Amino acid sequence: MCDWRRKLEDRLKKPLEDKLAEITGQYNETKTQLSRMERTLEEVTEKLNSTEEKLEVVTGQLNSTEEKLEVVTGQLKSTQDELVAVKGDLQTEASQHNVTEERLDACSRRLAETQSKLETARTLVNISRWDVLYTPPYFNKVLTEELFQQLTFSWDPLRKFVGTNLTDGVVEHFRQYHKEPECDAFEQFSSSMLRHFLGVEMTSGIIKHFKETHEDSACNNNTES
Question: What's the start-to-end Cα distance of the chain, in Å?
């Protein structure tokens, strides 16, 4: 009878022990997880405390910034009022400045004209008939018979202009189209040449000059139109 009871107890005890072992393992695992969660909670709490401290600092800075902003806003309002007043003054000064600039431009033009006339006068005063010898064909060169004849020949075209008013246009004609005394350097006649003779009486000498020098001359026999 005792053996039967012992066997029955062993049979009933075995599942209970297994269940107890399973529950004990789960308990130990839960305890471990709880311990981890407690440590995590402590870390989060520490971070939260640190964040709250930082928040207090930032809140203090924000309050200070707001106070400064109020001061700056007041200064800005005052500056804007001053700016409106300055703009009014500036518009008045701008109007006066425009008038002054107009007067200055007029004076500058008169000054430029006067300086131009003065420069021309100085140039004419200092010119001599020998200044041609300072030009490249003659200066620092040996005066040969050829150079002498060239110098003499360079003035021959003026013979046809005897009796003509030597205006700026006439002078510029010689400067532009008779830079070199050589025959083949003369340019063929063109309408642009006549611009220099506006207001000048077209004498027979001038017409002869154009025909012989810029049209019918042997210089232009091989020149294209």
Answer: 153
Each domain of the chain, given as residue ranges in start order, spans 129-220
Which strand (E) or helix (H) includes residue 148? helix 145-153
For every one of its 225 residues, what pLDDT tens digit does the chain have, with 9 covering 90 and above? 567 677 667 777 777 778 888 888 888 889 899 989 998 999 998 898 888 888 988 888 989 888 989 898 889 888 888 888 888 888 888 888 888 888 888 888 888 877 676 566 555 556 666 777 777 777 888 888 888 888 777 777 777 778 888 888 888 887 777 766 555 456 666 666 667 777 777 777 777 777 777 664 444 444 333
Contact 163, 208 (CB under 8 A): no
